[in-house]
Each structure stands twice: as structure tokens, then as C-alpha cells.
Amino acid sequence: GESVGLHLPTLSVQEGDNSIINCAYSNSASDYFIWYKQESGKGPQFIIDIRSNMDKRQGQRVTVLLNKTVKHLSLQIAATQPGDSAVYFCAENSKTSYDKVIFGPGTSLSVIP
Amino acid sequence: GAGVSQSPSNKVTEKGKDVELRCDPISGHTALYWYRQSLGQGLEFLIYFQGNSAPDKSGLPSDRFSAERTGGSVSTLTIQRTQQEDSAVYLCASSLPQSEKLFFGSGTQLSVL
After folding, report:
1. Which of B4, B49, B60, B100 to mutate against chain A (most A CBs within 10 Å)?
2. What are the pLDDT digits (tens) for B6-29?
3. How far A18 CA lies from chain B's nearest CA (Å)?
4. What are the residues whose beta carbons fall under 8 Å from the beta carbon of A106, sequence distance 6 or more?
5. Which of A83, A99, B17, B108 has its CA at a distance of 20 to 30 angstroms from the CA of residue B80?
């Protein structure tokens, strides 16, 4: 299947610090990108999205940055809290792939109190 | 409000048996996705339904896997002659027309003994 990753990379951060989670994508035709958060035992939940005509978008405590030149996406979480501990997935959508949403391999974020 | 509902939440079966997993999408959501998530890994795309269009089955790993969507609403994912490697969480998601923002169910944990 598509975008099945190896075992998840892990990021550990101290409570109160900022977190940066990175994602590389391969399809230059992708025009929409989304970050999802998956807590243990639950399905992924939408956090923030960005269209390819933008390079930055801010939400509440989260910022997504898009660098189309190097096909890189990042999620920044300000003042990380224990409740932010989860697996974070980037996802992309392209009109050339029948509009289906494809997920990246994910990063496990662990917040140290 | 009702979210995406999946049943059963857990399914234990014996190798070689057939299983059916059910997904009730959010009312009015025309797009429906099935993903598979193995332990500690990312989301593997399986199949995508969009309205009355032919489904995108490109992610189904073998002909033992099939899915249907009746009346543009409820979907059933069927796995025939289950194998131990089919053990995973099967996630369903739906979205509004012209929206790539997915709403996920809590998944079905399938264990093949």
C-alpha cells in the first residue's frame, strides 16, 4: 500500500518547550496538506491544513510551514503540553491521485513533564 | 453530534475465516476512505469511495480484500480467508464533498490467531 512507513520516529520534548515535527513529501503535484494528531486508541484528528499557494499558516499554538522547493512540511507546536503527546501525521492530496488523501509515516511526540 | 462509527471495535478471528468490518460515515459525507494501521506504523491507504464514482481500489493488498458502499452511506470492508498479517487496526474516514478534511472513526482492531 501507499505511504506505509517503518517504525515511527520519536521526538521527546520538555513541557513548555516548542516542538517541530517534520515531513517530506514526494508528489510535486500535491496541492493540499494536512496535519493530523492521533492519540492512543483513537482515530486521527484534524489539526491544521495549508494549500500549496501558501507557505505558512497559524492556528492556536500550532503553525504549519510549507516549502515547496524542497517538498517539506513542518508542524510547530508552541509551549508543548502533556496533552500534545500523540502521533502526528502529515497528509497530502493531489487532484492527480483521484483526490485521495495519502498519509506520511508519522512521528511520535512524547512530552516530558 | 454523530461522528464516524465503526463496528465492531474489536474482532478476534481464526486464520482462514472471513470477516466483515462496518463503517457508518457522517451524514452528508460523500467521500469514504478505508485505511489500515499496523502496530506502531502509519496509515496505509486501502480504498476510497467518492459519491457515485467508481471506487479507487488501488490500495487493496490482495484479492482477499473487498469493500462496498451501499446507498452512498454505510460501507463494509470484507477480508476473506484471513491471515495473521491482516492483524491491524482498520480505520474508516469520511469527508464532505469537495473537502479533503477527513473525520475518522475509532477503528476496528482485528486480531487473526
Report:
1. B100
2. 999 999 999 999 999 999 999 999
3. 24
4. A5, A8, A38, A87, A88, A89, B41, B42, B43
5. A99
